[in-house]
Write a structure and sequence with these properties.
Number of domains: 1
Radius of gyration: 16 Å
Order of helices and strands: EEEEEEHHEEEEEEEEEHHEEE
Largest sheet: 7 strands, mixed
CATH topology: Metallo-beta-lactamase, Chain A
CATH superfamily: Ribonuclease Z/Hydroxyacylglutathione hydrolase-like
Number of strands: 18
Structural class: mainly beta
Helix content: 10-25%
Shape: globular
Strand order of the largest sheet: 1-2-5-6-7-8-9
Strand content: 25-35%
CATH architecture: 4-Layer Sandwich
CATH class: Alpha Beta
């Protein structure tokens, strides 16, 4: 575990992947959420904005200045700006809803961050919900946010009420089944949602596929600001 002084330590569920302490979802106390720190030679990345980022800020800094904080969707802005100097990136479709974070850049489609992390828009939970597929050389991790999550040990799609779905900008393939179909062929062998119910697993190991690599069919780097 990585820690600094009295700062809560970062857990290491798998080598190269660090996890912040969990926090409770403010309006559903049996649901826990956390962020992940991706240890990378090109610069560490933080996936998901949660209270755990500020709680473990000193431990994160001790690993080296993080290059980016990648926001899965606009609801993560409810936790405010983390106590960490890190550029925040979010999909442009959610940009207007992220009012409490200083956004440094936006995604506008599928693309790559360096050669190991693929940005994959998965709209539906929000218009700009975005998943991240990271290949650390040993495992391929798919960070789904809460477009799918673990409830009492079972993977489920998060379905918005009809009224909320109608309020979203029109997007192709935004139904839960389409989102699951989109995630299925990505070649990940570890899935890490942002939320889970209390007592559940923080993620899942999946059968390893070898017919996909990050960036397959999509080589455009992400540099938009």
């Amino acid at each position: 575990m990585a820690s600094a002084g009295n700062t809560p330590p970062l857990e290491t569920p798998i080598e190269g992947l660090l996890a912040t302490p969990t926090s409770r979802l403010p309006y559903q106390h049996n649901v826990l959420l956390r962020s992940y720190v991706l240890a990378r030679p090109q610069g560490n990345l933080i996936v998901y904005n949660s209270p755990g980022v500020s709680e473990s800020a000193a431990a994160i800094r001790a690993l080296g200045q993080p290059a980016r904080l990648l926001v899965n969707h606009s609801h993560e802005s409810m936790y405010g700006q983390p106590d960490l100097d890190v550029p925040v990136w979010v999909h442009e479709q959610d940009r207007s809803e992220v009012t409490s974070l200083g956004v440094a850049g936006t995604f506008d489609g599928r693309g790559m961050i360096d050669d190991d992390l693929e940005v994959i828009p998965t709209p539906g939970h929000t218009a700009g919900t975005t998943s991240f597929l990271w290949d650390n050389g040993t495992h391929r991790f798919l960070f789904t946010g809460d477009f799918i999550w673990i409830e009492n040990g079972e993977w489920k799609a998060v379905v918005l009420s009809p009224g909320l779905r109608r309020a979203l900008p029109r997007q192709p393939r935004t139904c839960p089944q389409s989102r699951l179909r989109r995630a299925r062929p990505l070649g990940h062998d570890r899935a890490r949602p942002v939320v889970r119910t209390r007592g559940g697993s923080v993620g899942a190991a999946l059968p390893r596929r070898r017919d996909h690599r990050p960036g397959q069919g999509r080589k455009r780097p992400l540099t938009r600001r």
